[in-house]
Design brief:
Elements: H1 16-38, H2 45-52, H3 56-62, H4 66-91, H5 96-113, H6 115-122, H7 129-157, H8 167-186, H9 196-206
Helix pairs in contact: 1-2, 1-4, 1-6, 2-3, 4-5, 4-6, 4-7, 5-9, 6-8, 7-8, 8-9
Length: 210
């Protein structure tokens, strides 16, 4: 593990809020690495703290246990992914097909650039029991709602056919989540971004461009 720069102490130390944010970010990075490498079941607070180069006491200053840690990490990773997708969609302009493509590309790029966090987002969160399952269902719903809203807007403009049912958007999200999960678990395909043509076929198969 690469040596991390220490946060200055004494009179040169940053405000406590800054120190806590730095610590939390390091713990998130470490937790993602440990969860991806060992799996949620075999991960421990001690292993996460060691990966972060911190004491176990520092871990417990931020999280009550590893369940609280993975839930917080999940929320952070999911939120960042949604923001990246929204920004990419907005930057694509007004063309409905390009906006859909940009959102899908941004999702796959986030998975490719942050494989450990992606493993938590799509795979390891399931091990966190009922609360983990609720979190996963919630974010899949959020992704589906975003796709459905984009499709509804395109249908109003007459540039894309409206989904036959609200479940169509969820079916796309569920299929993409499983395809990405398989890639993370088995390395098939070699790069998650190779799924892009398939994702586009799923989207435009259910909602053809007019």
């Amino acid at each position: 593990m690469a040596e991390r720069a220490a946060v200055p102490r004494g009179r040169h130390a940053p405000p406590i809020e800054v120190r806590q944010t730095v610590q939390r970010d390091r713990l998130f990075e470490a937790a993602a690495a440990v969860f991806a490498r060992a799996g949620y079941a075999d991960a421990s607070a001690e292993a996460i703290a060691r990966e972060a180069g911190m004491s176990k006491a520092t871990f417990y200053e931020h999280f009550a246990n590893k369940e609280e840690c993975i839930l917080a990490l999940f929320d952070a990773a999911a939120g960042q992914t949604l923001v990246a997708m929204a920004e990419a969609t907005s930057a694509a302009g007004t063309d409905s097909a390009k906006r859909m493509q940009a959102g899908a590309q941004a999702f796959l790029e986030m998975l490719a650039e942050h494989p450990n966090e992606s493993q938590t987002l799509l795979v390891e969160i399931i091990g966190a029991g009922e609360r983990g399952a609720e979190r996963r269902d919630s974010i899949l719903n959020a992704f589906a709602q975003a796709i459905d809203a984009e499709n509804a807007n395109a249908a109003r403009k007459g540039t894309m056919r409206r989904f036959a049912s609200p479940d169509d958007a969820y079916a796309i999200v569920g299929a993409v989540a499983e395809l990405a999960s398989r890639q993370l678990r088995r390395g098939n395909p070699g790069d998650v971004r190779e799924l892009e043509p398939l994702v586009e076929r799923l989207i435009f198969g259910l909602a053809p461009v007019e």
